[in-house]
Amino acid sequence: MSFSDDIDSVSNLSRRQFLAAAAGAAVSAGVGGLSRSAHAAVSHNLPPLPYSENALEPVISSKTVGFHYGKHHRAYVDNLNTLISGTEFADMELEAIVSATAGKPDKVAIFNNAAQAWNHTFYWRSLRPKGGGEPPAGLKQKIEASFGGFDVCKKELANASITQFGSGWAWLVLDSGRLKVVKTGNADTPRTQGMKPLLTIDVWEHAYYLDYQNRRADYVNAVVEKLINWEFAAANLTAA
Ligand code: FE2
After folding, report:
1. 148 Cα: distance to centroid of ligand 1 (angstroms)
2. Is residue 116 part of a domain?
């Protein structure tokens, strides 16, 4: 399994969206434009949000999304471009950089910024306005077979998000034919451990602190019930 197998691979999405933006096509409203210049064909770019910055309210405020996307996510992309300039990674796809640097102490800065760039684009797509609710039938059947029930899956996802110590991520993944919930610290991604992510929840404090302060559980439970994009997860499962 490789990153390139993903449906709407993050890098492919980025490239398509960049090309669309470069051609003057409309992109998501309120995103604030792309970060890269005309030379971005060989640089990593910040993909537009798939919705406006206020579209996740009232669960996640436009202020949080504005900082999270416009400052944090953008910084990972910009830092990555700076770090790989002139290196063997300069012309590599994002997913390839993540795979090539994972677990290598001398490449940890590049890994952290590359993985965070990828994780964040995946996170934005894991949410949608008026999300939550029931998964599509095929995914729901797989969830019930793997967890014993949809409510169990949601509880495990919320619990992993709430109990991740410090910064990190909770994920619904496909692992050896079964779905399961895992959590990773900092920039780590289950992709480098042979699992296929279906969706993720960012539990870094920057994802919720402006809105919820120390009440991570309130953020997590609201996201699970009201914002999760089960259709995105279902599409990733279909592509697996
Ligand atoms: Fe984040």
Report:
1. 31
2. no
